[in-house]
Amino acid sequence: MKLTKRWAAITATAVAVGAAATGVASGTPGRSHADLKPVTVKHTAVRTVTKDGTTSVVDKRKVSLHVAQTVGLRDRQEVDVSWSGAHPTGGLVGNINSSLGLQEEYPMVLLECRGLDSKRAPKADRLSPQTCWTNATTERFQSDSNYASNDQAYPPWRLDKYASAAQRSALYGAPTTRPEECFGAAPEEYWVPFIALGGTKYYGGPNGCAGTAPEATGDSNQAMPSNETYGITQTNGQGSTKFDMWTADTNTSLGCSARVVCSLVAVPIMGISCDPAAEGLPDDDKPPAPDIEQATAECVKKGHFAPGEVGDGNGHEDATVSGALWWAASNWRNRLSVPLSFAQTPSVCDVVGAGAAVPVYGSELMTQATQQWSPKFCLTKSLFNFKHVQVGEPQARTQLMSGSIDAAFTSQPQAGGFPFPTVNAPTAVSGFAITFDIDDAHGDPVTKLQLDPRLLAKLMTESYPAISEIQNKDKALAKNPLNITRDPEFEALNPGVTTDSQVGATILNLSSQSDVMYALTSYINADPEARAWLDGKPDPWGMVVNKAYKRIQLPVNTWPLLDTYIPSDIYQPGLNDCLYNTPVPYLPLVAAPVQRLSQIALAMQFAIANSQTVCYQPLQGQSSGERLVAIGRQQLGSRFMLGVTTIPDAERYRLSMASLEAQTTSAAKSDFSSLAGRTFVRPTMASMRAAADTAKPDMTTGTWPVDSKRLRKAPSAKGAYPGTMIVYTTVATKGLASSAATDYSKLLDFAAGPGQTQGFDPGNLPPGYLPMTKSNGLGRLVAYTTRAASAVRAQRGDVPSLVPSKADNQGNDGNNGGTGPDGTGSSSSPPSSAAPTVPAVDGAATPGPSDPASPPAVASPAPASLGNTVASSSKLAGVALPILLALALLSGLLAPAITRYVRQRRRT
Amino acid sequence: MTATDLAKPGRPAPARSGARRAEPAAASRLARVRTRFAAAREAPPLPPASPGVSLTVSVLFMLSVTAVWLLIYGVFLSGIQERSAQHRLYSQLRFSLAQEVAPLGGAIKPGTPLAVISMPAAGLNRAVVVEGTTSTVLRDGPGHQQNTPLPGQLGWSVLMGRSVSFGAPFKDIGSLHPGDIITATTQQGTFHYSVINVRHNGDPLPPPVPDGGGRLTLVSSQGSGWRAGWAPSHEVFVDAALKEKALLAPAGRPTVIAPSATAMHSDTSGLESLVLWLQALLIVGGATVWASSRWGLWQAWLAGAPVILALVWVVSSNVFRLLPNLM
Predict the structure, then answer these.
(1) What does the domain layout of chain B look like in residue ranges?
(2) Residue A759: what pLDDT?
């Protein structure tokens, strides 16, 4: 054991050193080429034709497939796949991940299939067309109604030389009892059912009438695209694409994971090898003489479109060489397959039976790290089953305050502190990034983007009108450019980028409470130009802030949507029936923020614009059931999308990150006529390190705040990335059960040591985090976390000082400078600043109306009783109705009495 | 005797004959009463009473009518208003629960329905609880104290309700016994609370909430002795413990509430609207009176009476905002 541990340590150090070196140089930690196990496979693909008993080769190609990474694959990872030697593709379509690909001639079909392609593997583990994933039902079902124009009885697959007799019959693969929804059978049908993990067989059928897997939602531009790819081979026989690897997290029916073997299968479509004579088949399946000629002619066709020609979508492609017949035996036998191996995910902990999970709630910044740490924790006997529950950090702090959780990942201290001693132990250094999917005028992706805080403020404050109707009619925004690309400030920083889309007026943001929003708004607030603009001062080109956001107080935890303008011109039944029926302000629909940062990462990976401005009517022309839906996936070549994501998410899904303005000197021109005096910094290891270096300990809060104002001013922070954030594990040092305390201290020890090793294996730190190590200048954070770990294990109420005093080795000096939020280190009495105690507040004595539980029982056994009720009383309530009654009686009797008295007086 | 004889005080007319004096006494008395009335009818009208007196009388009369109306409104008619509000809130809450947008916590707008409670032992079935505990909000039904968690969540949840007016949903909570069940349904599910105790001023507080548990306190008012049932002068509290596992609440709950939301306080913000509605009442009343002379008595009052009644209703509702919220 010791030997392997040492070797593991050496390898890890070597990898870390190598990674750090490349990281400092290139900005992203690289993974050595060999680690990824790229694979190249070769196969000779053949198409034949059988005439008069002799088989001759029509086409023969040596196809070679190269997959850039085949081990340690993670969910939704995009892997580069390239091939050469294939038949060039004709009839090109726009979306090669959809069923449109069926119309391509000679595509290279890439599929993720469950199983191994090996005769030595047990039958249950072998792949087949039935375990390969496709999304639309037309990719797994053919019937002769497709040949309506010819109305011929022998579609090409029935003349397939390499198909079995059963496969060449009129009806193949259909369920034994045909469901009612499938109506009657067409004369020719070929079904390719899908077998999900666990054995459920989904037959599919025409329009999916016999059932489809739940993930088979069909071609929808609202969701992420499916991963089967009808790759386009260029005229030189080469092609490449990015293939999206899925695990069971994204597609449970396919079910690939670290425990379920899957393969990438590439089927180079060569066309059906025709055998019209059909020797050896029963007579029923032999084409009768009058049909043979026509069927043969159809079968041996070589393609309607020229290689490289764009398809017309009208069904002119030759079926025999189209992508629709990837499952046919002629094509299937030409396949190349590459086994895939997936990385361990936290789900292994459920299987291993590692015991009850010990949760830490909080920060989405930690998601990628905990995904890799979790498997290591539950598979290591000396550690524990650790689970990271992602919630917004303010919510996690509230739950910690109320005692419902024991530990939280946060980046900000709790305002007012906690009523029990807590320690904020630095766990990881990361941050937020502004990611973008932008294509330039030629349709090529833009790789560099520069943004300053004022531009971010403009995007977030709904100050761009987005559509011309708002620009024309809303007086407040009349002088503002339509979207960010028309803004001279943006053009000065990023020339040559234009868009007409409404999405150019907004940035995909969070709607929930998060410390990421706090950090982002601190960054905006620290810039004098942005702050002045938010307070109402127009920018040098006359753009003003949206009135609803004028003078907004920053920083905030959650960004409000305040615009109220309704452009009634476009709220017409013909234009947008949903908004006509329920008019709501338009710009908040364009902004459409989401709850989780991971949702933003998914939207940015596939450029799925979230602006909810499209009216979807299930019944065309009718209002019933209509609703607003997102604009959906943007067309490759004309994308424009911006989003707020975490740096680790951006690294994992290979999202482009923008450079943010770090500092301006006096040389900076306010009208951006030149960029002199302004520095823009991209998130890299070096820039995050420069920012982390400026973090100074704050004794009152017990954290090292990365102060945005200091980043703008300090000369040492010139190259510092302003979006850097430090994530702490906040945990109590008194009152925890001893097993929980030990577990959390193990987590802190891990975070201070082995957890900061970069890599892709369980227990490593994935890209996007600055390793918290001495070599990165973060030794003080590491030392503090180690001290915090001992304090948490001891559970004596000690809160180590941020700055170790000379005589302090153990860090058990809780009274030094009141480090923890609670000044008294070890207290045995309920702190007085706790939840309001019994004495009446405003006369109402319902005990502690704010956060609950007893005066937190962490410090001492809770008192048996909280005292006596002090109820309030109200004299008014006690006399109101009686007075009314008395008044009624009194005046009711008095009035007639007076009348009578007066009358009598007058008579006498 | 003739009328003219009456006018002249003095000697009675001599009897015409002795026989007449022997008429039966009743008949003569009847005749006397009859003639006295006839005399009164024919008597010249009295000079009008002094303006001071008539004003006083009218004022007293109006005062009496107002007091009677407020009494009737407070005890009976406000219940109609509350029942109508409860219907509206119930359908609103049903809709939000089905859409899963009913509030879960955080800062909720006062007046939003967020739960349905039932306590058959106290005669309350399916009352919709709204957010807020000011006198204004409690006109619609029981209210939830804003700085406490919702029923079913971790911690100590407080609900307040009226005991005399506006349907008096909480009038019988003082008669709950330990062990009685209170059911609350929120967006997070249905929760059952078991009553621990009923307390008044000076009674010991119940033990603190255990870890992971929830508690509910119902607050209302009670009167003792001759005041019972209509003049509640002091508070009554009922504590109940959650039987199921308590759930987490979202962050963002307010930590302080306005004084008008605390128990037995009135909502002085109702004063402005009261003044405005009184003005409206005066205007409409004046218009009706003016119209009755120009247009016609019956016509003017036919048109004006419903409007006046509606305004009087609203004015009374606003008057009750100025009374303590638990009344």
Answers:
(1) 65-261, 270-321
(2) 86
Q: Please give the pLDDT value at position A820.
A: 34
Residue A256 has pLDDT above 80, yes or no: yes
A899 interfacial to chain B (CB closer than 8 Å): yes
Ranking A378-387, A515-524, B138-147 by mean pLDDT, the lowest is: A378-387
Task: Report whether CATH 3.40.605.10 matches the domain A348-430+693-705+723-794.
Answer: no
Nearest CA in chain B to A840: B262
**pLDDT level of residue A853 (50, 70, 90 thresholds):** very low
pLDDT, tens digit (0-9, with 9 covering 90-100), for A564-582: 999 988 898 888 889 998 8
* CB-based contact, A880 to chain B, within 8 Å: yes
Burial label for B138, CB within 10 Å (0-12, 13-18, 19+), is buried
Q: Which residue of A has its CA nearest to B247?
A: A404
Rounded to the nearest angstrom, the minimum Cα separation between A616 and chain B is: 19
Tokens of A558: 């959650």
User: Helices B78-99 & B297-321, crossing angle to 10 degrees?
Assistant: 70
Domain boundaries, chain A: 1-35, 38-340, 348-430+693-705+723-794, 431-687
Contact B202, A868 (CB under 8 A): yes
Q: Is-contact A766 A651, C-beta < 8 A? A: yes
pLDDT tens profile B29-80: 676 767 666 655 665 666 666 788 888 888 888 889 999 999 999 999 999 9
Measure CB to CB from residue B60 to each of A392, A857, A895 and give the nearest one: A895
DSSP β-bridge partners for residue B235: B221
CATH architecture, range B65-261: Beta Barrel (2.40)
- Residue A250 has what DSSP assignment? T
Residue of A nearest to B324 (CA): A877
Q: What is the per-residue pLDDT for A347?
A: 80
Are B140 and B85 in contact, with CB atoms under 8 Å apart? yes
For the CA atoms of A813, A816, A820, A824, the dihedral, rounded to the nearest 10 degrees, stands at: 80
Question: Please, where are the H alpha helices in chain B?
Answer: 3-7, 18-21, 25-42, 51-72, 78-99, 270-294, 297-321
A54-57: long-range contacts, CB 8 A cutoff, minimum separation 24 = A55/A161, A55/A275
What is this model's ipTM? 0.80
Identify which of A205, A198, A202, A224 has the alpha carbon closest to the alpha carbon of residue A213.
A202
Q: With CB atoms and an 8 Å threshold, state whether A846 touches B61.
A: no
Asked whether the beta carbons of B116 and B87 are under 8 A apart, the reply is no
> Region B284-298: what's the mean pLDDT?
90
Q: How many residues does chain B have?
A: 327
List of chain A residues whose C-beta atoms are within 8 Å of the C-beta of residue B232:
877-878
- Among A403, A842, A876, beta carbon nearest to B211: A403
Find, among B84, B92, B126, B95, the residue nearest to B112 by Cα.
B92
A148-162, A439-453, B176-190: range with lowest mean pLDDT? A148-162
Sign of CA dihedral A712, A714, A720, A726: negative
Q: What angle do CA A501, A505, A506 make, to 5 degrees?
A: 115
Q: How far apart are CA B146 and CA B307, in angstroms?
A: 36
- The reply to whether residue B145 touches residue A846, judged by beta carbons under 8 angstroms, is yes
B207:A865 CB<8 A: yes
Q: Answer yes or no: do B71 and A884 touch at CB < 8 A.
A: yes
CA distance linking residue B180 with residue B161, whole number of Å = 18
Give the C-alpha separation, B151 to B158, whole Å: 8
Cβ contacts of A890 on chain B, cutoff 8 Å: 64
Say whether B240 sits in a helix, a strand or coil.
strand
Chain A CA closest to residue B201: A871
N-to-C CA span, chain A: 126
Round to whole Å and give the CA distance between B35 and B270.
59
